[in-house]
Amino acid sequence: MFVWINTIKNYLGYKELWNNDDGIATVELILILVVLIAVVLIFKDQITGLVNDIFDTITDQAGKV
After folding, report:
1. Cβ partners under 8 Å of residue 62, min gap 6
2. Hey, how many other C-beta atoms are within 10 angstroms of the C-beta on 65?
3. Domain ranges of the chain
4. Structure confidence by residue, pLDDT tens digits, 7-46
5. N- to C-terminal Cα distance for the chain?
């Protein structure tokens, strides 16, 4: 039974498709970008507040120079 299933998988190109790594880098890059965008959207308010605090500190201390 298992020999027959493996024969069908080999005939359908299952092993060649599984071992093909041509598009893996592209898929990884897209997944990383999706996760990064999701994190930015989730923490948008916190990131905006942090950036505003940093620029306020820079502006306040620039007058002392």
Report:
1. none
2. 4
3. 2-62
4. 666 666 656 666 667 777 888 999 999 999 999 999 999 9
5. 81
Q: Cα-atom radius of gyration of the chain, to the nearest Å?
A: 26
The token pair that represents 59 in the structure block = 């502006």
Provide the pLDDT confidence category of residue 55 given band limits of 50, 70 and 90: very high
> Is the Cα torsion angle 59, 60, 63, 65 positive or negative in sign?
negative
Q: Which residue has the higher pLDDT, 10 or 52?
A: 52
The first and second tokens of residue 26, run together, are: 């592209």
